[in-house]
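Researcher: Good morning. I'm working through a list of sequences from a screen, and I'd like to move beyond sequence-only analysis. For each chain I'm collecting a predicted structure so we can compare shapes side by side. This is the next one on the list. No need for commentary yet; just the structure.
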Amino acid sequence: MKKKTPAQLKKELDKYFSLFIRLRDSNKEGFGNCYTCGKNLHYKQVHCGHWIPRNILITRWNENNCKFQCAGCNLFGNGKPLDFEEHLRIDLGDELVDTLRASRFQIFKIDSIWYEKKISYYKSECEKMLPV
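Model: Good morning. Structure tokens for this chain:
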């Protein structure tokens, strides 16, 4: 079996992590509310929205940084970072949000083993949560 490249592993982790966030933030029928505007949608119709942008790897797969978000807010509203942060401060508290914000400056090295462990974990979690 051919070994996957880091880019392939990153893409696979993104797929399962996104599904995990969308399932985590939806009910047993698969519906949830957009974190920033409240619109009720099915998990297949929404995105995994990030408060700190995805290009910052240390927070890209941080569950506190990611929420169920409609395309309108995530794409056309650029993620609505001010609304996102306001909700995070209510849900997580100022200290955790400030720690998350500060963490974006940390160096984060990722290897294939790290990717493979995360992929395995999120894939397994998704299988447990998928609506019947």
